[in-house]
Specification:
elongated; 0% helix; 7-stranded antiparallel sheet; mainly beta
């Protein structure tokens, strides 16, 4: 993933454009020391009725430690899912 921002210093309200190596893009917003963004995968899950629904994954990354959490619904936008959170660690390359 690459991030680009026109903010000289990350302050509340600063935004960054994110681009992944697998094709998704998002805009991250800096708030209280954390970068927050959401990635949506259209038609990411098949519901029990056979229809497709998007999957949204919300990320929150501590700018100082590069640790974060991701939050998602186990059923995407289908009914009956469970909200889960998982920790992760980013590593700066280059």
């Amino acid at each position: 993933m690459t991030a680009s921002s026109s903010c000289p210093v990350a302050v509340n309200g600063c935004t960054a454009n994110l681009t992944s190596t697998v094709g998704w893009t998002s805009v991250a917003t800096f708030t209280d020391g954390r970068w927050n963004f959401t990635v949506t995968k259209p038609d990411g899950v098949v519901c029990d009725d056979g229809s497709y629904a998007p999957v949204r994954i919300a990320y929150s990354v501590n700018a100082a430690t590069m640790t974060g959490t991701l939050t998602a619904d186990s059923n995407g936008d289908c009914p009956g899912g469970q909200i889960t959170q998982a920790p992760f660690q980013l590593i700066k390359v280059g």
